């Protein structure tokens, strides 16, 4: 069953990440995370009595996990807001490596040779997808520069004000391209650290779930993380000297949908990791199914380029996952 739970997690977290990016277009990031996690806590509040039985040591571990994951989510959304969500996913290989190594060293799992082959295939797919994205970006910049040059020459030859104005507009596009490249670098750095923190959080889950039930972990995690995001939000509001909440924020229907996907995704991954027969190295790879989901969902929702060609690289990733889990 732990394999099924991990697959369900990947499906729901894929929807969650894509919809969360969409929600950020209309609502402040920190407010979005604070309010959606608060609504999510209400969905798991039924476990109050059971949650009160958790020891102080485990509460500290859950709090540490919550702090780590809250920072991971902030970095992740900053990355998603500034670059293509489908193109950032290859970097999530960091989580696979971290959990895979932890499985060998910390959890003392016996890893058979074909799983290393599966992981290698996944890396080939992820790296190829990233290189394809770089090549696409480079070609777009070259084509944009060619268009800019042609338009500038035409404006000079025609000596018309309206063409000159068009030329100036396209000169600004060079600046926009430069800004886009800077945003790409920022996104890659933020997402890399996000994946690292996310991987650490996943390792902590295995330790926590040896003494804590899924319902108990869900209750305290949602409570802690919602409180943390409200703290971050109010610190931000103090910094800008105003409460950054608009009436239109409450009309953002995604605020009320996201908590459902979050609670379901967390519940499935906690049940998967908490299974005594679960193999952490395999779970870390199964979670990469979310990469496939996010690339497809993101490309469809945000009209991101080259989805059909990206599916070829995603097929490599899927083959690698099947080999590892087999």
Keywords:
326 residues, mainly alpha, 13 helices, 82% helix, globular
Kindly report how far apart the N and C termini lie: 14 Å
Q: Give the class from helix and strand content and strand pairing.
A: mainly alpha
**Could you name the ranges where pLDDT drops below 50 across 5 or more consecutive residues?**
160-172
Task: Count up the domains.
Answer: 1
Largest sheet: none
Radius of gyration: 22 Å
Q: How many alpha or pi helices?
A: 13
Shape: globular
Number of strands: 0
Averaging pLDDT over every residue, what do you get? Answer: 79
Q: Please indicate the percent range of residues in DSSP E strands (runs of 2 or more).
A: under 5%
Share of helix, binned = over 70%
Topology as a string of helices (H) and strands (E): HHHHHHHHHHHHH
Structure in words:
This protein has 326 residues and is mainly α. It has one domain. It contains 13 helices and no strands. The longest helix has 48 residues, at 161-208.
Provide a compact summary of the structure.
The protein has helices at 2-23, 29-44, 48-51, 56-82, 85-88, 93-105, 113-158, 161-208, 214-240, 254-274, 280-286, 289-302, 307-325.
Strands, helices and their partners?
Elements: H1 2-23, H2 29-44, H3 48-51, H4 56-82, H5 85-88, H6 93-105, H7 113-158, H8 161-208, H9 214-240, H10 254-274, H11 280-286, H12 289-302, H13 307-325
Helix pairs in contact: 1-10, 1-12, 2-9, 2-10, 4-8, 4-9, 6-8, 6-11, 7-8, 7-13, 9-10, 12-13
């Amino acid at each position: 069953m732990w394999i099924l739970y991990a697959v369900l997690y990947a499906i729901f977290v894929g929807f969650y990440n894509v919809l969360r990016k969409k929600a950020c277009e209309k609502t402040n990031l920190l407010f979005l995370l604070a309010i959606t996690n608060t609504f999510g806590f209400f969905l798991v509040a039924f476990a109050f009595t059971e949650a009160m039985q958790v020891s102080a040591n485990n509460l500290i571990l859950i709090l540490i996990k919550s702090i780590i994951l809250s920072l991971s989510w902030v970095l992740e959304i900053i990355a998603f807001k500034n670059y293509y969500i489908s193109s950032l996913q290859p970097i999530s290989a960091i989580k696979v490596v971290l959990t895979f190594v932890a499985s060998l060293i910390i959890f003392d799992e016996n890893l058979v040779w074909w799983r290393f082959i599966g992981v290698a295939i996944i890396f080939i797919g992820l790296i190829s997808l990233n290189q394809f994205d770089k090549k696409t970006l480079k070609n777009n910049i070259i084509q944009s520069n060619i268009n800019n040059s042609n338009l500038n020459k035409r404006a000079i030859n025609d000596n018309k004000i309206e063409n000159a104005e068009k030329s100036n507009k396209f000169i600004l596009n060079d600046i926009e391209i430069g800004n886009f490249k800077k945003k790409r670098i920022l996104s890659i750095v933020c997402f890399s650290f996000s994946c690292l923190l996310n991987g650490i959080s996943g390792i902590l889950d295995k330790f926590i779930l040896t003494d804590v039930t899924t319902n108990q972990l869900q209750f305290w995690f949602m409570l802690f993380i919602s409180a943390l995001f409200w703290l971050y939000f109010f610190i931000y509001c103090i910094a800008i000297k105003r409460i950054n909440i608009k009436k239109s924020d409450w009309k953002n229907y995604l605020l009320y949908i996201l908590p459902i996907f979050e609670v379901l995704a967390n519940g499935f991954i906690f049940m998967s990791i908490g299974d005594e027969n679960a193999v952490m190295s395999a779970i870390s790879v199964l979670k990469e199914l979310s990469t496939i989901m996010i690339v497809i969902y993101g490309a469809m929702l945000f009209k991101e380029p080259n989805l059909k060609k990206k599916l070829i690289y995603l097929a490599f990733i899927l083959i690698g996952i099947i080999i590892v889990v087999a």
